[in-house]
Design a protein that fits this description.
The chain has 349 residues and is of the alpha/beta class. It is 46% helix and 11% strand. It is built from eleven helices and seven strands. The protein has helices at residues 11-20, 28-55, 63-99, 125-133, 152-158, 171-182, 205-211, 236-252, 274-278, 289-299, 325-341, and strands at residues 112-118, 138-145, 162-165, 190-195, 217-221, 267-270, 304-308. It is globular and about 75 Å long. The two termini are 39 Å apart.
Length: 349
């Protein structure tokens, strides 16, 4: 099967778009929202001091401090509202035009190379591989074993997977290796990225295929209550925290899509755009890699759409960012730092 014709614009076209829409690419809404949040936080401090004064029955206490905080809170709030209004009123139409491109149709029928991340997933990897191998659109399943200490690699081979061992530790290294191996096979026009713990299933590939004509990257979202099993490792705190960070991604890249989940591994990518996409990724980013991936892809003009997927209880013990709420909070805060200040920092390595 011939390699699909690329749907990516030329480098010259991308540079032309960047020059033409230079100011429109700036995330004024994102920084406006941060500025408004700072103003509201300062305002909240003034309210807290006022309540404290009333509880202590000291009407003269903190009066000057409260007045000063109320006055200060008006500055970032006003600046933030102005930035948001500027973005929505003047820049959003241009951003939406920049984000929309007509994609070249995939060769039919669509065929998929599935890549699975794995780390000490001996209990689940065999069933996961067999599940994907049985799907009619899947040509092969690749498992990247991130230095497991159990029989993960052996169980994957027994189930029919091509197995690679990634020596560099970390989730980002494992995902990057998955995509690097998946892009090598020219007989498939799609590469699916997933995990080997049975939280996601091959049946959802049919959903991804329905969305694929609309984007180069179809990212799965677990933020659909009806499709989420009651007994998953995604707690209520993680569920809504992930949604909040997803909306931060959406605001940063205003006009480029609707995003609700920055933490899911499950995604399907057009093979022809993967070589260029991988050049913008840093495999040293660890548990925050999915947010890094989405942010960098949108920044460099790749089209993306979300697909609702079914989320099942994992088989075995969680080793990622969903171990507990405290760890999830730390990962989420690092995602926010990456979105706000960039990913080139030892914090993510």
């Amino acid at each position: 099967m011939a390699t699909p014709v690329s749907s990516r614009p030329s480098e010259t076209a991308v540079l032309t778009e960047t020059r033409r829409f230079g100011i429109e690419r700036l995330p004024f809404f994102y920084w406006g929202a941060w500025s408004v949040s700072c103003g509201l936080f300062i305002y909240g401090l003034a309210i807290a001091l006022s309540i404290t004064r009333l509880l202590l029955i000291q009407r003269g206490l903190f009066v000057d401090s409260i007045a000063r905080l109320l006055w200060i809170s008006g500055f970032p709030t006003t600046v933030g509202v102005a930035l948001i209004a500027l973005d929505l009123a003047l820049m959003l139409p241009a951003k939406r035009r920049l984000a929309r491109r007509t994609l070249v149709d995939l060769e039919q029928p669509a065929s998929i190379t599935v890549t699975l991340t794995a780390y000490n997933d001996e209990e689940s990897i065999g069933a996961a591989v067999r599940d994907f191998v049985a799907h009619p659109r899947v040509r092969r399943v690749i498992v990247v074993d991130n230095n497991s200490s159990d029989a993960t690699a052996e169980r994957a081979r027994e189930a029919g997977a091509i197995v690679h061992v990634e020596p560099a530790p970390g989730y980002g290294s494992c995902v990057y290796r998955c995509l690097s191996e998946g892009v090598k096979f020219e007989d498939t026009n799609l590469v699916a990225l997933c995990e080997g713990d049975m939280t996601f299933r091959a049946a959802d590939l049919d959903k991804f295929l329905a969305y694929q004509p609309h984007a180069e990257i179809v990212n799965g979202t677990r933020i659909v209550e009806q499709l989420r099993h009651y007994d998953t490792q995604l707690s209520t705190f993680m569920y809504y925290g992930n949604f909040v960070v997803g909306k931060m991604l959406e605001v940063k890249h205003l006009g480029k899509g609707t995003f609700t989940d920055v933490g899911t591994t499950y995604k399907v990518i057009r093979r022809d755009c993967l070589p260029g996409l991988l050049r913008h990724m840093d495999p040293r980013v660890n548990l925050e890699f999915n947010a890094h991936f989405l942010d960098r892809a949108l920044e460099h003009g790749y089209t993306m759409v979300e697909c609702p997927i079914t989320f099942h209880p994992r088989v075995g013990k969680s080793k990622g960012g969903n171990v507990n709420n405290l760890r999830a909070l730390k990962v989420g805060m690092r995602m926010i730092l990456g979105l706000s200040f960039g990913w080139r920092t030892p914090l993510f390595h």
